Amino acid sequence: MKAWFIDGFGNYENLEFGDFTDTAPLKGEVRIRVRAACVNPIDRSVITGRFPWMQMPHIPGAEFAGEVVERGEGTEAPERGRHVVVFPKLFCGECYYCIRGEQSACLANKHMESAPYIIGLQRNGGWSEFATVPARNVMEIPDGVPFEQAVTLPVDATTALHLVSRCRPSVGEKALVMGAPGGVGSFALQMLKMYGCEVISVVGNREQADMVRGLGSDHVIDRNLKDIVAEVRSITGGRGADIVIDPLGSSTLQTSVEALAPLGRYATCGILTGPKAELSILRLYSMQIELVGSTSSNLPDMYAVLEMMGRSKLRGAVDSTFQFSEMRQALSRLDQHGRLGKIVVKI
Ligand SMILES: NC(=O)c1ccc[n+]([C@@H]2O[C@H](COP(=O)([O-])OP(=O)(O)OC[C@H]3O[C@@H](n4cnc5c(N)ncnc54)[C@H](OP(=O)(O)O)[C@@H]3O)[C@@H](O)[C@H]2O)c1
Ligand SMILES: [Zn+2]
């Protein structure tokens, strides 16, 4: 089969297109004809070498959807021809956390302190014509939902739902979303609205402002025109935000924490701008702030976002769509500012 793969770390030129040995599904696996994939920051980290212990050659691609073509012998899974998405979280199903339904914390991840346990990183991903994956990671796409929409869900919508839920949002609370036009942000803001929060989105230009308003954001702050903390205080009557969703890491941590109200929750799932920053412990306890770390998601999160999309309650914002041959261009788009949501590749 044809695939995009790496045989060592480097820049995007290092990504090769060519023949890759396809594997027949074993018991408990499903082979999928991939129809659409997304390009995410985690794929960039895989290609450029953030996880030096990875096995080579490797097919990146944590987020993809397609049709079932073959099921391993005796494997229960959607039938041949069914449209499915692949939940990227790998999990053993047997550890302390898995049996409690917390697949996000599965102890089988040998690199838990620094890397997610996902398809596309710790196992070949979906930037290929076919992909063989565990059957329990395969879920049917609701009728009427096209591949190009369903494929926006497995990485960012699930992560956003897990992240937002862990902040225990309640009706009427004020929530600030950093990176709102991005993959995680665009879903987090929709979910905060569903919880009944008043949402303030941080954007970088006018098009992004229009986009997040279209997704339901109540207020918008252009970070290039306004002081974020002062604006949040003004919108919240001086109190601050009850929740700040911030997957951006070091460059925004200070601002995010300063924008919090007493008893506020700062929630992170990413380090887009770096992993380290200073935090005042005095402020932390004086303001009774909670730091919420969150990664990946649990199986019910994936079912929930599919169901919401099937009922048109959740929308994947798509910035751009590329052909299979244009994977390097799709990656370059990931590096550009001013994007409006996700990058989809038709396969
Ligand atoms: N742990 C997990 O399970 C998990 C799952 C999904 C994602 N993540 C991580 O979460 C992070 C975000 O992912 P994503 O897919 O949402 O990324 P993305 O689509 O690139 O979105 C990032 C957004 O943040 C904005 N931004 C960048 N720098 C900023 C700054 N200094 N201040 C304010 N806004 C800024 C960008 O705006 P511009 O247009 O100006 O660039 C963009 O809208 C990544 O590190 C990713 O790896 C983790
Ligand atoms: Zn487990």
UniProtKB/TrEMBL annotation:
| Domain annotation Enoyl reductase (ER): ranges | 10-345
Keywords annotated in UniProt: NADP
Pfam annotation, one family: ADH_zinc_N
Q: SMART domains given for it? A: PKS_ER
Any one GO molecular function term: anion binding
Q: Which InterPro entries match?
A: ADH-like_C, ADH-like_N, ER, GroES-like_sf, NAD(P)-bd_dom_sf, Zinc-ADH_QOR/CCCR
Which GO biological process categories is it annotated with? small molecule metabolic process
Which protein are we looking at?
Zinc-binding dehydrogenase
Q: Which organism is it from?
A: Candidatus Sysuiplasma superficiale
